[in-house]
Amino acid sequence: MEVIVADAAGFCMGVKRACQMAFQAAARQPGRVKSLGPIIHNPQLVAKLAAEGLEIAAEVDELEPGTAVLIRSHGVPPEVYERARELDLEIIDATCPLVRKAHRLTSRLAEEGYAVVIVGEPDHPEVRALKAYAGDGAHVVETPADVEALDDLGRIGVVAQTTQLLSDYQRLVGAMLAKAEELKAFNTICDATALRQQAAERLAAVVDAMIVVGGKNSANTTRLYQRCRDKLGLPAWHIETAEELDPSWFSGMQRLGVTAGASTPDWIIEAVVERLRTF
Ligand code: F3S
């Protein structure tokens, strides 16, 4: 059976950088560094890091003074940095540079007196951090109904969670015009998500089925899978590891496509491809 991997699949720049920083930190001071939440939504990689001595803390207050805290690519609110300094923690900051840029632009909008509106998932850690950079009273919208429910806000400043799709963002920003005298919108979207989706779509057009590799707890991997299955109408499976593959799924098929979310390490994708090629 022929196996083709999508030309954009797996780790994005920010996640790759964060994982490298995590492995380096664990090697340098095993047991003396904790990440604030799991470094990425991939259980296999988190387990590998745990085996190397990188533990997870839910709050900075769980760390002993003098140890190190690793901030993951999603970023954290400013008060987390302040608290880490108060506790005399070394800060290893793996916030994605594109997320940092979104923080800076959000702060700037708030300083310039705009009512800040964030387009994104309200409970996502990246959005919670953006909200903190916007100061008091920032709004989070995810759907046209959320925009409709906004009061007239006068001067609106808009930023997006980096993983939003540009077309959705454009639609919501357009709808916000009805709520504003002045509207200033920054494009804070990173193209990693769209590139993975577009590559999956191109591949889906020439294969019999798609395998989507990545954490079941990874939102971007799950969205990729749903897109292959629902929008592209192909048989598709979402797996975390090569061991989950079942040869009976592929009877009568000639060509398989493989894709993976931005939080899926290369070694897991390679193991999946290797096993598929034995079928
Ligand atoms: Fe950064 Fe984009 Fe990845 S914002 S963490 S490179 S999805």
Structure write-up:
This protein has 10 helices and 12 strands. The mean pLDDT is 95. 43% of the residues are buried. It has helices at 13-28, 43-51, 78-86, 97-111, 125-133, 144-148, 166-176, 192-204, 219-231, 266-276; strands at residues 2-5, 33-36, 55-57, 68-71, 90-93, 115-119, 139-141, 154-160, 180-185, 209-213, 236-239, 255-260. The site of FE3-S4 cluster has 14 residues, from α1, α4 and α8.
Considering the chains and any ligands shown, give keywords for the structure.
279 residues, alpha/beta, four-stranded parallel beta sheet, 10 helices, 12 strands, binds FE3-S4 cluster
Q: Briefly, what is this?
A:
By secondary structure, this protein is α/β, with parallel strands linked by helices.
Compute the number of helices. Answer: 10
Walk across the major sheet and give the strand order.
1-12-10-11
User: What class, by secondary structure content?
Assistant: alpha/beta
Distance between the termini: 7 Å
The overall strand count is 12
Strand content: 15-25%
Low-pLDDT windows of residues: none
List SSEs in N-to-C order: EHEHEEHEHEHEHEHEHEHEEH
Name the ligand types: FE3-S4 cluster
